[in-house]
Amino acid sequence: MLVTNLTILVLAGFVGFAVISKVPNTLHTPLMSGTNAIHGIVLLGGLLVIGLSGNGAFNKVILVIAIAFGTINVVGGFLVTDRMLEMFKRKPGPPPPPAADKDA
Amino acid sequence: MLATTFLQQADFLHVLYIVAFALFIYGLSGLTGPRTAVRGNRIAAVGMAIAVIATLLARGEGNWALIVIGVALGTAVGVPAARRVHMTAMPQMVALFNGVGGGAVFLIAWAEFRNTGGYLGEPTYFAVFSLFAAIIGSVSFWGSNIAFGKLQELLPGRPITLGRSQQLVNALVAAAAVACAVAIVAGSHSQLLFILMLIAAAVLGNLVVLPIGGADMPVVISLLNAFTGLSAAATGVALNNPALIVAGMIVGASGSILTNLMAVAMNRSIPAIIAGGFGGGGVVAGATGAGEHAGTVRSTTAADVAVQLAYARQVVIVPGYGMAVAQAQHAVRELAKALEARGVGVSYAIHPVAGRMPGHMNVLLAEADVPYEQLREMDDINPEFARTDVALVIGANDVTNPAAKTNPGSPIYGMPILDVEDANSVVVIKRSMNPGFAGIDNELYTRPNTAMLFGDAKTAVSELTAELANI
Fold first, then answer.
1. Which one of B94, B103, B255, B468 is CB 3.0 to 4.6 Å from B141, fit for a cystine?
2. Per DSSP, what are the bridge partners of residue B345?
Protein backbone atom coordinates (compact mmCIF):
# COMPACT_ATOMS: atom_id res chain seq x y z
CA MET A 1 0.00 0.00 0.00
CA LEU A 2 2.80 2.39 0.92
CA VAL A 3 4.63 1.78 -2.34
CA THR A 4 1.47 2.34 -4.38
CA ASN A 5 0.80 5.55 -2.52
CA LEU A 6 4.33 6.80 -2.98
CA THR A 7 4.08 6.05 -6.70
CA ILE A 8 0.93 8.12 -6.92
CA LEU A 9 2.59 10.86 -4.87
CA VAL A 10 5.62 11.18 -7.12
CA LEU A 11 3.68 10.95 -10.38
CA ALA A 12 1.16 13.51 -9.17
CA GLY A 13 4.02 15.85 -8.33
CA PHE A 14 5.30 15.68 -11.91
CA VAL A 15 1.83 16.09 -13.38
CA GLY A 16 1.33 19.10 -11.14
CA PHE A 17 4.54 20.71 -12.34
CA ALA A 18 3.69 20.04 -15.98
CA VAL A 19 0.16 21.44 -15.75
CA ILE A 20 0.86 24.44 -13.55
CA SER A 21 3.94 25.57 -15.52
CA LYS A 22 1.65 26.41 -18.42
CA VAL A 23 -0.49 28.85 -16.46
CA PRO A 24 0.34 32.45 -17.47
CA ASN A 25 1.42 35.01 -14.85
CA THR A 26 -1.80 36.92 -15.47
CA LEU A 27 -3.87 34.12 -13.99
CA HIS A 28 -1.66 33.37 -11.01
CA THR A 29 -4.00 34.79 -8.39
CA PRO A 30 -6.96 32.69 -9.56
CA LEU A 31 -4.58 29.73 -9.84
CA MET A 32 -3.60 30.22 -6.26
CA SER A 33 -7.14 30.53 -4.93
CA GLY A 34 -8.20 27.61 -7.12
CA THR A 35 -5.47 25.32 -5.84
CA ASN A 36 -6.35 26.61 -2.39
CA ALA A 37 -9.85 25.26 -2.90
CA ILE A 38 -8.42 21.96 -4.09
CA HIS A 39 -6.31 21.42 -0.99
CA GLY A 40 -9.53 21.88 0.94
CA ILE A 41 -9.85 18.21 -0.03
CA VAL A 42 -8.45 17.52 3.44
CA LEU A 43 -12.14 17.76 4.23
CA LEU A 44 -12.24 14.12 3.12
CA GLY A 45 -9.79 13.27 5.89
CA GLY A 46 -12.16 14.80 8.41
CA LEU A 47 -15.12 12.90 6.97
CA LEU A 48 -13.21 9.61 7.07
CA VAL A 49 -11.84 9.97 10.58
CA ILE A 50 -15.12 11.15 12.08
CA GLY A 51 -16.65 7.94 10.68
CA LEU A 52 -14.26 5.71 12.63
CA SER A 53 -15.48 4.14 15.83
CA GLY A 54 -13.94 5.20 19.10
CA ASN A 55 -14.03 8.96 18.70
CA GLY A 56 -14.54 10.60 22.09
CA ALA A 57 -16.21 13.94 22.71
CA PHE A 58 -12.98 15.91 22.29
CA ASN A 59 -12.23 14.20 18.98
CA LYS A 60 -15.71 14.98 17.77
CA VAL A 61 -15.22 18.65 18.57
CA ILE A 62 -11.89 18.97 16.77
CA LEU A 63 -13.15 16.98 13.81
CA VAL A 64 -16.21 19.18 13.44
CA ILE A 65 -13.87 22.17 13.45
CA ALA A 66 -11.66 20.43 10.88
CA ILE A 67 -14.67 19.71 8.66
CA ALA A 68 -15.80 23.32 8.99
CA PHE A 69 -12.29 24.52 8.09
CA GLY A 70 -12.13 22.19 5.11
CA THR A 71 -15.56 23.34 3.92
CA ILE A 72 -14.56 27.01 4.18
CA ASN A 73 -11.51 26.16 2.13
CA VAL A 74 -13.41 24.28 -0.57
CA VAL A 75 -16.57 26.34 -0.91
CA GLY A 76 -14.96 29.73 -0.38
CA GLY A 77 -12.01 28.89 -2.60
CA PHE A 78 -14.04 27.75 -5.60
CA LEU A 79 -16.52 30.63 -5.30
CA VAL A 80 -13.93 33.36 -5.08
CA THR A 81 -11.95 31.85 -7.96
CA ASP A 82 -15.09 31.76 -10.06
CA ARG A 83 -15.73 35.43 -9.26
CA MET A 84 -12.25 36.41 -10.32
CA LEU A 85 -12.22 34.37 -13.50
CA GLU A 86 -15.54 35.81 -14.57
CA MET A 87 -13.90 39.22 -14.48
CA PHE A 88 -11.18 38.10 -16.84
CA LYS A 89 -13.65 36.56 -19.22
CA ARG A 90 -16.34 39.22 -18.90
CA LYS A 91 -15.91 40.58 -22.37
CA PRO A 92 -13.74 39.72 -25.32
CA GLY A 93 -12.35 43.25 -25.48
CA PRO A 94 -11.50 45.20 -28.60
CA PRO A 95 -8.57 43.89 -30.61
CA PRO A 96 -5.64 45.70 -29.01
CA PRO A 97 -3.72 47.41 -31.80
CA PRO A 98 -0.19 48.06 -30.58
CA ALA A 99 0.25 51.12 -32.76
CA ALA A 100 4.01 50.79 -32.68
CA ASP A 101 3.87 47.50 -34.58
CA LYS A 102 3.79 49.36 -37.88
CA ASP A 103 7.22 50.87 -37.49
CA ALA A 104 8.70 47.70 -36.13
CA MET B 1 -29.60 -3.10 -0.02
CA LEU B 2 -27.60 -4.72 -2.79
CA ALA B 3 -27.10 -1.33 -4.37
CA THR B 4 -25.78 0.04 -1.11
CA THR B 5 -23.23 -2.74 -0.80
CA PHE B 6 -22.13 -2.19 -4.36
CA LEU B 7 -21.73 1.52 -3.76
CA GLN B 8 -19.56 0.80 -0.75
CA GLN B 9 -17.19 -1.54 -2.53
CA ALA B 10 -13.62 -0.36 -2.24
CA ASP B 11 -13.03 -0.64 -5.99
CA PHE B 12 -16.02 1.47 -6.84
CA LEU B 13 -14.94 4.17 -4.40
CA HIS B 14 -11.46 4.06 -5.78
CA VAL B 15 -12.84 4.65 -9.27
CA LEU B 16 -14.75 7.68 -7.99
CA TYR B 17 -11.54 9.05 -6.50
CA ILE B 18 -9.77 8.57 -9.81
CA VAL B 19 -12.57 10.41 -11.59
CA ALA B 20 -12.25 13.19 -9.02
CA PHE B 21 -8.52 13.75 -9.41
CA ALA B 22 -8.74 13.43 -13.19
CA LEU B 23 -11.24 16.29 -13.09
CA PHE B 24 -8.88 18.34 -10.90
CA ILE B 25 -6.06 17.96 -13.39
CA TYR B 26 -8.28 18.57 -16.40
CA GLY B 27 -9.87 21.57 -14.71
CA LEU B 28 -6.55 23.13 -13.78
CA SER B 29 -5.21 22.71 -17.29
CA GLY B 30 -8.07 25.03 -18.30
CA LEU B 31 -6.39 27.80 -16.34
CA THR B 32 -3.91 28.32 -19.17
CA GLY B 33 -6.20 30.90 -20.76
CA PRO B 34 -8.97 33.26 -19.62
CA ARG B 35 -11.61 31.73 -21.89
CA THR B 36 -11.29 28.19 -20.60
CA ALA B 37 -10.48 29.17 -17.02
CA VAL B 38 -14.00 29.61 -15.67
CA ARG B 39 -15.04 26.23 -16.99
CA GLY B 40 -11.80 24.70 -15.68
CA ASN B 41 -12.47 25.93 -12.18
CA ARG B 42 -16.02 24.56 -12.29
CA ILE B 43 -14.79 21.20 -13.55
CA ALA B 44 -12.40 21.03 -10.60
CA ALA B 45 -15.31 21.89 -8.30
CA VAL B 46 -17.33 19.00 -9.75
CA GLY B 47 -14.34 16.74 -9.07
CA MET B 48 -14.39 17.92 -5.47
CA ALA B 49 -18.10 17.19 -5.16
CA ILE B 50 -17.55 13.65 -6.47
CA ALA B 51 -14.70 13.08 -4.01
CA VAL B 52 -16.85 14.25 -1.11
CA ILE B 53 -19.82 12.10 -2.14
CA ALA B 54 -17.57 9.05 -2.56
CA THR B 55 -16.20 9.57 0.94
CA LEU B 56 -19.66 9.93 2.43
CA LEU B 57 -20.70 6.65 0.76
CA ALA B 58 -17.63 4.90 2.16
CA ARG B 59 -17.97 5.78 5.79
CA GLY B 60 -19.62 3.21 7.97
CA GLU B 61 -20.34 4.90 11.28
CA GLY B 62 -22.98 7.48 11.95
CA ASN B 63 -22.09 10.93 13.21
CA TRP B 64 -24.02 12.37 10.29
CA ALA B 65 -25.31 15.18 12.46
CA LEU B 66 -21.77 16.26 13.25
CA ILE B 67 -20.85 16.28 9.59
CA VAL B 68 -23.86 18.41 8.78
CA ILE B 69 -22.92 20.83 11.56
CA GLY B 70 -19.34 21.08 10.30
CA VAL B 71 -20.31 21.59 6.68
CA ALA B 72 -23.03 24.09 7.60
CA LEU B 73 -20.58 26.10 9.72
CA GLY B 74 -18.00 26.09 6.96
CA THR B 75 -20.52 27.15 4.33
CA ALA B 76 -21.90 29.89 6.55
CA VAL B 77 -18.42 31.38 6.90
CA GLY B 78 -16.96 30.61 3.49
CA VAL B 79 -19.73 31.70 1.13
CA PRO B 80 -20.29 35.27 2.36
CA ALA B 81 -16.53 35.78 2.71
CA ALA B 82 -15.95 34.68 -0.89
CA ARG B 83 -18.85 36.76 -2.19
CA ARG B 84 -18.00 39.98 -0.41
CA VAL B 85 -14.23 40.18 -0.42
CA HIS B 86 -12.78 43.12 -2.34
CA MET B 87 -10.24 42.30 -5.00
CA THR B 88 -7.67 44.46 -3.21
CA ALA B 89 -8.11 42.18 -0.18
CA MET B 90 -7.58 39.01 -2.21
CA PRO B 91 -4.12 38.23 -0.75
CA GLN B 92 -5.43 38.15 2.82
CA MET B 93 -8.45 36.10 1.76
CA VAL B 94 -6.18 33.52 0.14
CA ALA B 95 -3.94 33.55 3.23
CA LEU B 96 -6.95 32.93 5.43
CA PHE B 97 -8.35 30.12 3.28
CA ASN B 98 -4.89 28.61 3.16
CA GLY B 99 -4.64 28.84 6.92
CA VAL B 100 -7.90 27.02 7.60
CA GLY B 101 -6.76 24.28 5.22
CA GLY B 102 -3.60 23.83 7.29
CA GLY B 103 -5.71 23.97 10.45
CA ALA B 104 -7.92 21.16 9.19
CA VAL B 105 -4.84 19.06 8.42
CA PHE B 106 -3.33 19.25 11.89
CA LEU B 107 -6.67 18.79 13.64
CA ILE B 108 -7.33 15.63 11.61
CA ALA B 109 -3.86 14.33 12.43
CA TRP B 110 -4.48 15.00 16.10
CA ALA B 111 -7.81 13.15 16.01
CA GLU B 112 -6.07 10.21 14.29
CA PHE B 113 -3.44 10.14 16.98
CA ARG B 114 -6.07 10.08 19.73
CA ASN B 115 -8.25 7.63 17.88
CA THR B 116 -5.45 5.10 17.51
CA GLY B 117 -4.12 5.58 21.04
CA GLY B 118 -0.89 7.09 19.74
CA TYR B 119 -0.61 4.92 16.59
CA LEU B 120 -0.94 1.65 18.57
CA GLY B 121 -0.76 -1.25 16.13
CA GLU B 122 -0.48 1.07 13.12
CA PRO B 123 2.31 0.73 10.55
CA THR B 124 5.28 3.08 10.95
CA TYR B 125 4.61 4.90 7.70
CA PHE B 126 1.15 5.84 8.97
CA ALA B 127 2.71 7.54 11.98
CA VAL B 128 5.44 9.22 9.92
CA PHE B 129 3.10 10.74 7.33
CA SER B 130 0.49 11.67 9.89
CA LEU B 131 3.08 13.47 12.05
CA PHE B 132 4.59 15.19 9.01
CA ALA B 133 1.12 16.43 8.09
CA ALA B 134 0.53 17.63 11.63
CA ILE B 135 3.75 19.66 11.78
CA ILE B 136 3.45 21.23 8.34
CA GLY B 137 -0.28 21.84 8.79
CA SER B 138 0.31 23.63 12.06
CA VAL B 139 3.15 25.76 10.62
CA SER B 140 0.92 26.65 7.69
CA PHE B 141 -2.08 27.48 9.89
CA TRP B 142 -0.17 29.86 12.15
CA GLY B 143 2.02 31.28 9.40
CA SER B 144 -1.01 32.02 7.23
CA ASN B 145 -2.80 33.69 10.11
CA ILE B 146 0.16 35.97 10.71
CA ALA B 147 0.33 36.71 6.97
CA PHE B 148 -3.39 37.51 7.08
CA GLY B 149 -2.84 39.79 10.08
CA LYS B 150 -0.07 41.65 8.29
CA LEU B 151 -1.95 42.03 5.01
CA GLN B 152 -5.12 43.11 6.81
CA GLU B 153 -2.93 45.53 8.79
CA LEU B 154 -4.01 44.04 12.09
CA LEU B 155 -0.29 43.53 12.65
CA PRO B 156 2.43 45.96 11.60
CA GLY B 157 3.61 45.22 8.07
CA ARG B 158 7.25 45.90 8.90
CA PRO B 159 9.43 42.95 9.86
CA ILE B 160 9.22 41.90 13.52
CA THR B 161 12.44 40.08 14.30
CA LEU B 162 14.41 38.65 17.15
CA GLY B 163 17.52 40.11 15.57
CA ARG B 164 20.60 37.98 15.15
CA SER B 165 19.31 35.07 17.17
CA GLN B 166 16.26 34.62 14.90
CA GLN B 167 17.67 31.82 12.80
CA LEU B 168 19.08 29.98 15.79
CA VAL B 169 15.72 30.17 17.59
CA ASN B 170 13.88 29.03 14.45
CA ALA B 171 16.23 26.09 14.09
CA LEU B 172 15.81 25.10 17.75
CA VAL B 173 12.02 25.26 17.58
CA ALA B 174 11.98 23.22 14.37
CA ALA B 175 14.31 20.70 15.98
CA ALA B 176 12.00 20.47 19.00
CA ALA B 177 9.00 19.69 16.77
CA VAL B 178 10.95 17.05 14.88
CA ALA B 179 12.31 15.55 18.11
CA CYS B 180 8.77 15.08 19.48
CA ALA B 181 7.73 13.44 16.21
CA VAL B 182 10.73 11.11 16.26
CA ALA B 183 10.00 10.10 19.85
CA ILE B 184 6.43 9.24 18.87
CA VAL B 185 7.53 7.19 15.87
CA ALA B 186 10.09 5.45 18.09
CA GLY B 187 7.23 4.11 20.18
CA SER B 188 5.97 6.72 22.61
CA HIS B 189 2.19 6.97 22.83
CA SER B 190 2.21 10.14 24.89
CA GLN B 191 -0.32 12.69 23.78
CA LEU B 192 1.65 15.31 25.67
CA LEU B 193 4.48 14.85 23.19
CA PHE B 194 2.05 15.27 20.32
CA ILE B 195 0.68 18.47 21.80
CA LEU B 196 4.21 19.77 22.42
CA MET B 197 4.98 19.04 18.80
CA LEU B 198 1.93 21.01 17.65
CA ILE B 199 2.93 23.92 19.89
CA ALA B 200 6.51 23.93 18.60
CA ALA B 201 5.20 23.93 15.02
CA ALA B 202 2.82 26.76 15.90
CA VAL B 203 5.66 28.84 17.36
CA LEU B 204 7.72 28.12 14.26
CA GLY B 205 4.90 29.28 11.98
CA ASN B 206 4.72 32.56 13.89
CA LEU B 207 8.48 33.07 13.99
CA VAL B 208 8.92 32.42 10.29
CA VAL B 209 6.30 34.86 9.05
CA LEU B 210 6.58 37.70 11.60
CA PRO B 211 9.98 38.91 10.30
CA ILE B 212 8.77 39.10 6.70
CA GLY B 213 8.01 42.54 5.31
CA GLY B 214 4.91 43.42 3.28
CA ALA B 215 6.62 43.41 -0.11
CA ASP B 216 7.89 39.86 0.42
CA MET B 217 4.35 38.61 0.99
CA PRO B 218 3.93 37.12 -2.52
CA VAL B 219 6.69 34.65 -1.72
CA VAL B 220 5.35 33.77 1.70
CA ILE B 221 1.79 33.21 0.56
CA SER B 222 3.00 30.96 -2.25
CA LEU B 223 5.24 29.03 0.11
CA LEU B 224 2.49 28.50 2.68
CA ASN B 225 0.21 27.38 -0.14
CA ALA B 226 2.79 24.75 -1.10
CA PHE B 227 3.08 23.68 2.55
CA THR B 228 -0.63 23.11 2.96
CA GLY B 229 -0.68 21.13 -0.27
CA LEU B 230 2.15 18.87 0.88
CA SER B 231 0.52 18.34 4.26
CA ALA B 232 -2.72 17.33 2.52
CA ALA B 233 -0.76 14.86 0.37
CA ALA B 234 0.84 13.40 3.51
CA THR B 235 -2.59 13.01 5.08
CA GLY B 236 -3.61 11.18 1.92
CA VAL B 237 -0.75 8.70 2.24
CA ALA B 238 -1.62 8.08 5.89
CA LEU B 239 -5.29 7.54 5.06
CA ASN B 240 -4.66 5.59 1.83
CA ASN B 241 -6.69 8.10 -0.11
CA PRO B 242 -5.48 8.68 -3.70
CA ALA B 243 -7.67 11.74 -4.26
CA LEU B 244 -6.01 13.47 -1.31
CA ILE B 245 -2.53 12.50 -2.47
CA VAL B 246 -3.00 13.76 -6.02
CA ALA B 247 -4.78 16.97 -5.04
CA GLY B 248 -2.22 17.70 -2.34
CA MET B 249 0.73 17.14 -4.64
CA ILE B 250 -0.72 19.34 -7.37
CA VAL B 251 -1.15 22.15 -4.88
CA GLY B 252 2.35 21.50 -3.57
CA ALA B 253 3.72 21.73 -7.12
CA SER B 254 1.73 24.86 -7.87
CA GLY B 255 2.86 26.56 -4.66
CA SER B 256 6.49 25.61 -5.29
CA ILE B 257 6.43 26.95 -8.84
CA LEU B 258 4.90 30.22 -7.72
CA THR B 259 7.31 30.57 -4.79
CA ASN B 260 10.23 30.10 -7.13
CA LEU B 261 8.85 32.53 -9.73
CA MET B 262 8.32 35.20 -7.09
CA ALA B 263 11.78 34.73 -5.62
CA VAL B 264 13.36 34.94 -9.09
CA ALA B 265 11.34 38.06 -9.86
CA MET B 266 12.78 39.70 -6.75
CA ASN B 267 16.23 38.24 -7.32
CA ARG B 268 16.26 36.87 -3.79
CA SER B 269 16.80 33.38 -2.56
CA ILE B 270 13.94 31.70 -0.73
CA PRO B 271 16.10 31.05 2.37
CA ALA B 272 17.06 34.74 2.47
CA ILE B 273 13.41 35.77 2.45
CA ILE B 274 12.54 33.26 5.15
CA ALA B 275 15.47 34.52 7.19
CA GLY B 276 13.70 37.88 7.11
CA GLY B 277 14.60 41.53 6.65
CA PHE B 278 15.99 42.89 3.43
CA GLY B 279 19.38 41.50 2.57
CA GLY B 280 21.06 42.41 5.80
CA GLY B 281 23.21 45.30 7.04
CA GLY B 282 26.20 44.67 4.81
CA VAL B 283 24.38 44.79 1.51
CA VAL B 284 22.49 47.98 2.24
CA ALA B 285 25.63 49.73 3.50
CA GLY B 286 27.39 48.84 0.25
CA ALA B 287 24.57 50.40 -1.69
CA THR B 288 24.74 53.83 -0.12
CA GLY B 289 28.30 54.17 -1.29
CA ALA B 290 27.51 53.48 -4.90
CA GLY B 291 24.03 54.93 -5.49
CA GLU B 292 24.36 58.65 -4.81
CA HIS B 293 22.12 61.29 -6.28
CA ALA B 294 23.11 62.46 -9.70
CA GLY B 295 21.13 65.07 -11.54
CA THR B 296 17.91 66.71 -10.49
CA VAL B 297 14.29 65.70 -10.47
CA ARG B 298 11.99 67.38 -12.99
CA SER B 299 8.44 68.03 -11.82
CA THR B 300 5.58 68.39 -14.28
CA THR B 301 1.87 69.24 -14.34
CA ALA B 302 -1.22 67.25 -15.27
CA ALA B 303 -1.87 69.59 -18.22
CA ASP B 304 1.57 68.96 -19.71
CA VAL B 305 1.30 65.20 -19.28
CA ALA B 306 -2.18 65.18 -20.83
CA VAL B 307 -0.81 66.88 -23.96
CA GLN B 308 2.02 64.38 -24.14
CA LEU B 309 -0.40 61.46 -23.81
CA ALA B 310 -2.90 62.87 -26.29
CA TYR B 311 -0.32 63.02 -29.08
CA ALA B 312 1.34 59.71 -28.29
CA ARG B 313 0.90 56.62 -30.42
CA GLN B 314 1.83 54.07 -27.82
CA VAL B 315 1.38 54.47 -24.07
CA VAL B 316 2.40 51.82 -21.57
CA ILE B 317 0.96 52.04 -18.08
CA VAL B 318 3.14 50.55 -15.33
CA PRO B 319 0.99 49.94 -12.27
CA GLY B 320 2.41 49.06 -8.86
CA TYR B 321 1.07 48.35 -5.43
CA GLY B 322 0.75 52.11 -4.86
CA MET B 323 -2.02 52.13 -7.47
CA ALA B 324 -3.91 49.44 -5.58
CA VAL B 325 -3.47 51.25 -2.26
CA ALA B 326 -4.88 54.43 -3.79
CA GLN B 327 -7.75 52.39 -5.33
CA ALA B 328 -6.86 54.07 -8.60
CA GLN B 329 -7.48 51.13 -10.95
CA HIS B 330 -10.88 52.39 -12.11
CA ALA B 331 -9.52 55.90 -12.66
CA VAL B 332 -6.67 54.38 -14.66
CA ARG B 333 -9.14 52.47 -16.81
CA GLU B 334 -11.08 55.70 -17.50
CA LEU B 335 -7.87 57.40 -18.60
CA ALA B 336 -7.02 54.47 -20.86
CA LYS B 337 -10.48 54.58 -22.42
CA ALA B 338 -10.12 58.30 -23.13
CA LEU B 339 -6.75 57.63 -24.75
CA GLU B 340 -8.06 54.73 -26.80
CA ALA B 341 -10.89 56.95 -28.05
CA ARG B 342 -8.18 59.20 -29.48
CA GLY B 343 -6.50 56.28 -31.18
CA VAL B 344 -3.66 55.92 -28.71
CA GLY B 345 -2.50 52.33 -28.18
CA VAL B 346 -2.57 51.49 -24.47
CA SER B 347 -1.14 48.47 -22.74
CA TYR B 348 -0.20 47.61 -19.17
CA ALA B 349 3.21 46.31 -18.13
CA ILE B 350 2.86 44.00 -15.16
CA HIS B 351 5.89 42.99 -13.12
CA PRO B 352 5.51 39.54 -11.56
CA VAL B 353 5.73 40.95 -8.03
CA ALA B 354 3.44 43.94 -8.55
CA GLY B 355 0.89 43.65 -5.76
CA ARG B 356 0.87 41.46 -2.69
CA MET B 357 0.46 38.04 -4.28
CA PRO B 358 1.30 36.46 -7.63
CA GLY B 359 -0.90 37.94 -10.35
CA HIS B 360 -2.65 40.34 -7.95
CA MET B 361 -2.30 43.39 -10.21
CA ASN B 362 -3.93 41.53 -13.09
CA VAL B 363 -6.98 40.76 -10.99
CA LEU B 364 -7.32 44.39 -9.93
CA LEU B 365 -7.12 45.58 -13.53
CA ALA B 366 -9.49 42.87 -14.73
CA GLU B 367 -11.96 44.07 -12.13
CA ALA B 368 -11.69 47.54 -13.63
CA ASP B 369 -12.62 45.99 -17.01
CA VAL B 370 -9.19 46.19 -18.56
CA PRO B 371 -9.20 43.67 -21.45
CA TYR B 372 -7.05 40.62 -20.77
CA GLU B 373 -5.07 41.18 -23.98
CA GLN B 374 -3.76 44.53 -22.75
CA LEU B 375 -2.18 43.00 -19.65
CA ARG B 376 1.37 42.25 -20.71
CA GLU B 377 3.98 40.22 -18.87
CA MET B 378 7.43 41.63 -18.24
CA ASP B 379 9.41 39.65 -20.82
CA ASP B 380 6.73 40.32 -23.39
CA ILE B 381 6.54 44.09 -22.96
CA ASN B 382 10.18 44.97 -22.25
CA PRO B 383 11.28 45.05 -25.91
CA GLU B 384 8.38 47.37 -26.67
CA PHE B 385 9.43 50.19 -24.35
CA ALA B 386 11.88 51.39 -26.98
CA ARG B 387 8.89 51.97 -29.27
CA THR B 388 6.78 53.54 -26.55
CA ASP B 389 6.11 57.27 -26.55
CA VAL B 390 5.07 57.60 -22.93
CA ALA B 391 5.55 55.16 -20.06
CA LEU B 392 3.20 56.13 -17.25
CA VAL B 393 4.43 54.72 -13.94
CA ILE B 394 1.70 54.67 -11.31
CA GLY B 395 2.69 53.65 -7.80
CA ALA B 396 5.52 51.37 -8.91
CA ASN B 397 9.06 52.01 -7.76
CA ASP B 398 11.70 49.36 -7.29
CA VAL B 399 10.53 47.31 -10.28
CA THR B 400 11.42 50.26 -12.54
CA ASN B 401 14.81 51.11 -11.01
CA PRO B 402 17.56 50.91 -13.64
CA ALA B 403 20.06 50.41 -10.80
CA ALA B 404 19.02 46.77 -10.87
CA LYS B 405 20.84 46.53 -14.20
CA THR B 406 23.62 49.08 -13.86
CA ASN B 407 24.71 49.27 -10.24
CA PRO B 408 26.30 46.10 -8.82
CA GLY B 409 26.33 47.74 -5.38
CA SER B 410 22.56 48.12 -5.27
CA PRO B 411 20.58 45.72 -3.05
CA ILE B 412 18.25 45.06 -5.96
CA TYR B 413 21.08 44.49 -8.45
CA GLY B 414 20.16 41.57 -10.72
CA MET B 415 16.42 41.82 -10.11
CA PRO B 416 14.57 41.70 -13.44
CA ILE B 417 12.89 45.06 -13.98
CA LEU B 418 10.56 46.73 -16.46
CA ASP B 419 12.73 48.71 -18.88
CA VAL B 420 10.65 51.88 -18.66
CA GLU B 421 13.72 54.08 -19.05
CA ASP B 422 13.88 52.96 -22.70
CA ALA B 423 10.64 54.79 -23.43
CA ASN B 424 10.79 58.11 -25.23
CA SER B 425 9.42 59.80 -22.19
CA VAL B 426 8.62 58.57 -18.70
CA VAL B 427 6.03 60.08 -16.38
CA VAL B 428 6.05 58.91 -12.78
CA ILE B 429 3.00 59.55 -10.62
CA LYS B 430 4.20 59.49 -7.06
CA ARG B 431 3.12 60.95 -3.76
CA SER B 432 6.55 62.25 -2.77
CA MET B 433 10.21 61.51 -3.25
CA ASN B 434 10.21 58.85 -0.52
CA PRO B 435 12.07 55.76 -1.62
CA GLY B 436 10.28 52.42 -2.08
CA PHE B 437 10.12 49.58 0.37
CA ALA B 438 13.73 48.63 -0.23
CA GLY B 439 14.75 52.15 0.78
CA ILE B 440 16.75 52.65 -2.39
CA ASP B 441 16.94 55.83 -4.46
CA ASN B 442 15.46 55.29 -7.88
CA GLU B 443 17.80 56.77 -10.47
CA LEU B 444 14.99 56.62 -13.01
CA TYR B 445 13.63 59.79 -11.42
CA THR B 446 16.71 61.83 -12.26
CA ARG B 447 16.95 60.70 -15.87
CA PRO B 448 16.57 63.51 -18.44
CA ASN B 449 13.55 61.83 -20.08
CA THR B 450 11.69 61.38 -16.79
CA ALA B 451 9.17 63.80 -15.35
CA MET B 452 7.50 63.49 -11.96
CA LEU B 453 3.83 64.19 -11.42
CA PHE B 454 3.47 64.48 -7.67
CA GLY B 455 0.18 63.59 -6.03
CA ASP B 456 -2.16 60.83 -4.97
CA ALA B 457 -2.43 58.24 -7.74
CA LYS B 458 -6.22 58.38 -8.03
CA THR B 459 -6.45 62.18 -7.98
CA ALA B 460 -3.57 62.59 -10.41
CA VAL B 461 -4.98 60.09 -12.89
CA SER B 462 -8.45 61.66 -12.72
CA GLU B 463 -6.87 65.07 -13.36
CA LEU B 464 -5.14 63.66 -16.42
CA THR B 465 -8.45 62.36 -17.76
CA ALA B 466 -10.07 65.74 -17.12
CA GLU B 467 -7.23 67.63 -18.83
CA LEU B 468 -7.39 65.24 -21.75
CA ALA B 469 -11.02 66.17 -22.32
CA ASN B 470 -9.99 69.82 -22.75
CA ILE B 471 -7.53 69.15 -25.53
1. B103
2. B314
